[in-house]
Amino acid sequence: MCSSATRHLKSIQAAASPEELKSLIRQRTQTVCSLSARLLRVQDEERRRLARELHDSTGQTLTALKLQLASLQEGVRIGRTDPTDFAQVNALADQALRDIRTTSYLLFPPLLDERGFCSAAEWYVDGFSKRSNIQVRLHLASIGRLPRLIETGFFRVLQESLANIYRHSASRIADVRLNQTSGIVVLEVQDYGNGIPAALLDQFTRAGTSAGVGLAGMRERMEDFGGRLEITSGPSGTQIRASVRIESVPSDSNESSGFKHAVAA
Ligand SMILES: Nc1ncnc2c1ncn2[C@@H]1O[C@H](COP(=O)(O)OP(=O)(O)OP(=O)(O)O)[C@@H](O)[C@H]1O
Ligand SMILES: [Mg+2]
Asked: Which atom of ligand 1 is the closest one to the Cα of 237?
């Protein structure tokens, strides 16, 4: 059972009276229903975004490729072919391949499974910085491989935190830190922007809901494998801190030993 469900079960067991119990169960059912509805909406939104992306980028390139091939075919039919036509067909096919590779990598980068969180984070941050013009400074301790669920969870936290920085913070710089101390692995994503509105942060801390599903999704994901998500935010910026205890990974990897430092701008 996931840790948030365990937490809910404990509060139900601690309820003093049948009335309290009924009200708790009602509350939980409402929360689950509203989260499911929001998740379905996000899934639809994601599918819409992908459909648009495929249509607008790869679809357009393939249309241009088809036109180019038709003109090439006509050239062959009338015995007048131009070598540059072939070069253009080749370039368009390359472009379509690049589009498909980028889309599939963004959905789930193969690097994450093959080489782990740090390699996938470097690749993702590099592309993010180019797309957004936000300078991201990476400080990644060499902590080796983590269980797959945790690497995927950390990667999703990184993606959502950077997306939020781009969409909401107005910060031009971000710091991403990965460290391990005393068996606890910590990922921090920090920006220097205008901060999460206090009322919204308060509502998220108390009720677990916010304007979208990004913050709630990160927290649920971390709690699913026994981790935590903490948010600190104010007028000088926001810090997202995801942490999890790793029993099997040797501790004491710190900034001075085996510390990898990179900047993507
Ligand atoms: N780094 C940030 N700086 C400033 N405000 C932020 C930041 N991150 C989140 N917020 C605020 O918190 C709100 C909730 O964030 P959340 O990620 O849950 O939803 P969202 O980004 O609006 O939508 P989505 O569901 O697509 O993630 C945002 O709408 C924004 O107002
Ligand atoms: Mg978001």
From this structure: 3
Q: For residues 189, 131, 126 and 93, what is the CA-based torsion angle, rounded to 10 degrees?
A: 140
At residue 226, the pLDDT reads 92
Same domain, 27 and 129: no
Do the beta carbons of residue 188 and residue 232 sit within 8 Å?
A: no
- Same domain? For 118 and 223 the reply is yes
* Ligand 1 atom, smallest distance to 240 CA: 1
Question: Does 16 or 49 have the greater pLDDT score?
Answer: 49
**CB-based contact 196:231 (threshold 8 Å):** yes
The least confident of 26-30, 59-63, 159-163 is 26-30
If asked whether residues 123 and 248 sit together in one domain, one would say yes
- pTM for the full predicted model: 0.74
pLDDT reading at 66 higher than 80: yes
Q: In what side-by-side order are the strands of the sheet with 135-141?
A: 228-234, 237-245, 184-191, 173-181, 135-141, 259-264
Separation of 191 CA from ligand 2 center, angstroms?
14
The percent of residues above 90 in pLDDT, for the chain, comes to 52
Among the atoms of ligand 1, which is closest to the Cα of residue 193? 3
Ligand nearest to the CA of 42: 1
The residue whose C-alpha atom lies closest to atom 29 belonging to ligand 1 is 211
Which of ligand 1's atoms lies nearest the C-alpha of 42? 25
Decide: helix, strand or coil at residue 115. helix
The finding on whether 164 has its CB within 6 A of some atom of ligand 1 is: yes
- Beta carbon of 198 within 6 Å of any ligand 1 atom: no
Residue 136, domain extent: 109-264
Same domain? For 120 and 223 the reply is: yes
Tell me, yes or no, whether 30 and 137 share the same domain.
no
Same domain (yes/no): 28, 81: no
- Tally of domains in the chain: 3
Domain identity same for 100 and 30 = no
Does 125 sit in the ligand 1 pocket, CB within 6 Å?
A: no
Q: Is the pLDDT of residue 8 over 70?
A: no
